[in-house]
Amino acid sequence: MKWILPAGAVALTLFGGGAWYLTQGAGQTGAADVRLPGAAQAQAAEIDISTVTEMVKGAEDAPIEVIEYASYTCPHCASAHANLIPKLEQNYIDTGKVKFIYREVYFDKVGVWASLIARCGGEEKFFGITDLLYEGQSEWARQGEQGIIAAFRKIGLKAGMESDQIEACLNDGDQIATLVGWFQANAAEHEINSTPSFVIDGKKYSNMSYEEFSAILDAKLD
Q1: 16-47 tens-digit pLDDT
Q2: Which is nearest to 180 in space by CA: 80, 126, 113, 133?
Q3: Architecture per CATH, 7-221
Q4: N or C: which end of the chain has fewer CB within 10 A?
């Protein structure tokens, strides 16, 4: 399944009708443990997206910059992180040829929750938690909201975080509003409407095989 959403519908889905997207189900069985206290103020508040940390691998002065736009709930993204990204990391990122930036895409509230967990441990733990989220996607994605949140808590604990830290991250309404605003700005800048998408030195590409990806990178390196 490939997530596709018209760019103009992204803002409507996220913020249309107030904060329903982020708060629907709160207090019900599925999401009883996630209050999202700041979400109701997300529209009215002035959001400073410059506070969002870019998650980066590779040398800052690498000759090529690759930005991946991906959703934690996208099966194609999980496949890319199992097959494509490890090869890119081994052959281009770790060798200093590519600066790799990972940016989250939010097509659903579960993706926002996953992002809260991934970022909860800071830059040091982000990519490790991201790997755990994608590796377990086929299992947690089949559960109801309560089961998904429980799975995310377990992933946070496995990554070495304390329970109080995890709960604080899941209930950080200001962070939710900031991340969603950041995503909207990114999606508008690079016209992101499907995942995974890749921006290579400013040019957007759809999902592709490693062979296609490496051919593009090699041509730039020649």
Answers
A1: 322 323 333 322 223 323 344 334 444 445 67
A2: 113
A3: 3-Layer(aba) Sandwich (3.40)
A4: C
